């Protein structure tokens, strides 16, 4: 090795414990906060170990960007992500690697391209109208609401409709099973990926058994949708030309490529449900968390919506959503301060040197991506919620502004293919809420906790609504 290079053993390490190393400290509900605190303690690149196994932790934006861009050849997602999801019967674009990933990625990116997102508009409008109706009832009843749970309903309805054209309608009906099942799956993926020993393979706890039931129920349902969609497509050449949802698009592709199995179709539909729901609902929730504390920003979003929609309750065209520039700035600012995927786990596929750091093949890298987004060097008054910084010439005082530091949607070839759809959903919900309701926190801001279960969500974000 070149002597000017640093190797992982040369890196600093936060204080750990004998034998277990950093395992117990890391084994917390707020893993992202543990990593953030370690960055404060020892700097932006360091090592930790769990039961003797070393891990590289990087909050350095340049190193992280290089890693993200060097996929799929030099780096891949942490191998356990694929292992755990495959064990759960899910092989889709998020966990596939190599040639399989390329195939899945092409199909997914195609199904979520700008043209298709435009065609999803009527679904988004219908769900936003439903959210309006639901919240009107809450406002009338003066009922306090848990924002995060509400927003999950909104994104579940949108995502299931876009994924397989099925209207679960959790916004208007109570007790939908899909949502109950999906809620069990996310935290289990997170805890299994970071578990030092796969105990569930030997003894199943109550939660493991519940997970099996949830997975089986979702799998049965999706396979039922697959059969129904195949029957629809069978004699309908128009539908084969213009599939109306993600599942139909995948099945059309499957006809051209019989190697693409039903299990892979299932895996990718399931992946869209997993990747598209909590990420978006949590991002909307955090945006509302800041809006509730910044009445002047709330008012500006409302005025923009009034100007763009006129007398309607929510946006009535894709073009109107595109006009909501200030609302988009508000969403970006909330995602800067509260990225719902603050950590990404990667693995080196070969020996790699980045800057002066030698990363041996097989090394697991825990990326902490929030640090760059909230660093004073990149964003003036970095800890403050100032949406104006995202508007060209919007805030002359905030001179440091480095949008390229944003990693809320990842970076490189595996950058989130759902970004356009997610931003569209966020803008639709936020503009409708600000236009039609007054919103006030029913708890103190410090009582709202960051909980990390694969994505990071606000626990205890309760608000009171007023109508306008
Ligand atoms: C605000 C909402 C969202 C956030 C913050 C978010 C964030 C992310 C991040 C950080 C990644 C990893 C990127 C990387 O490795 O570089 C990712 C991947 C992915 N996201 Fe999103 N996402 C959101 C919404 C969505 C939506 C709505 C969909 C689809 C309906 C979606 C589908 C995916 C898929 C399929 C991947 C895997 C891509 C691959 O591995 O090639 N996401 N997302």
Describe this structure in words.
There is one protein chain. The chain is an alpha+beta fold and 468 residues long. It has 2 domains: 108 residues, Uridine Diphospho-n-acetylenolpyruvylglucosamine Reductase, domain 2 (2-Layer Sandwich); 344 residues, Cytochrome P450 (Cytochrome p450, Orthogonal Bundle). The chain is built from 19 helices and 13 strands. It has a 5-stranded mixed beta sheet with strand order 2-3-9-6-4. It has a 3-stranded mixed beta sheet with strand order 1-8-7, with helices on one face. The protein has a 3-stranded antiparallel beta sheet with strand order 5-13-10. Protoporphyrin IX containing FE binds next to helix 5, helix 13, helix 14 and helix 19. It comes from Owenweeksia hongkongensis (strain DSM 17368 / CIP 108786 / JCM 12287 / NRRL B-23963 / UST20020801). One of its GO terms (molecular function) is oxidoreductase activity, acting on paired donors, with incorporation or reduction of molecular oxygen.
Layout of helices and strands, plus pairs?
Blueprint lengths: L5 E2 L15 H4 L4 H12 L2 E6 L2 E6 L2 H9 L5 E3 L1 H9 L10 H14 L2 H6 L1 H20 L4 E2 H18 L12 H17 L12 H29 L2 H5 L4 H11 L5 H15 L1 H16 L1 H15 L8 H6 L1 H13 L5 E6 L3 E3 L2 E3 L4 E5 L1 H4 L45 H18 E5 L7 E5 L1 E5 L2 E6 L1
Parallel strand pairs: 1-8, 3-9
Antiparallel strand pairs: 2-3, 4-6, 5-13, 6-9, 7-8, 10-13, 11-12
Helix pairs in contact: 7-8, 7-19, 8-13, 8-14, 9-10, 10-12, 10-13, 14-17, 14-19, 15-17, 15-19
The structure holds protoporphyrin IX containing FE.
Protein name: Cytochrome P450
GO molecular function, one term: iron ion binding
Family: Belongs to the cytochrome P450 family.
